[in-house]
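Assess the record.
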Amino acid sequence: MHKYSDSDQSFCSSIIMSSIKQAAEYSANEHLGTALSLQDHHHHHHFSHQDHHHYHHHESPRRETHTPAKQTYRVYCKADPCFALAVRDGTVILTPHDPTDPRQHWVKHDSVSALVKDEEGLPSFLLVNKATGQAIQHAVGGRQAVRLAPYGGDGGVLDGSLLWTAGSINGDEEYKDIRMQNNIRLKMDAFKGIPEFGGVSDWTVVGLWEWNEGDNQRWAIVPY
């Protein structure tokens, strides 16, 4: 069972409050960002890896010609399958499942799966949000929220910070642990999404945590 110490609880709370603060700042600047989007369009698609942290708070709608229509997937965790992984105000969260919400639809890109694998030999993939065209990016470290970064398509320069793998869990055939391709010890985690802290709720922030067998670290990726 996933256990948090008092210091872990305080740490998670600070992450969640930081994400909520970022969302508030995003909303306040949303109209200004729309006005500037045309003049910034060229610049947005040429950010370097070191600039990703400046970009991931923006949710510019994906251009219709950016990628051909592809199969989309729902991503959810065992802690509460009634919630789905989504993008909201520049943050990766869990929210009540709504199949009509494009921000809950993810395209699983696996074009590099045969070439890039983790240390256990499992193939890598990217998860790109249908609504925003952004890919889930590794957190800056353990116990931090995952980020979002623009995805330039299968023909673009490969960014290793966007690559994930799905590992098998002993005794659990339905769910996998989603982890960084280059550090499989850090798993995708629904922060505080356990009964001791009220379980998964709307706006549960998703980040990285060391494996502790919690249901909030067990994920399913299923087609819509």
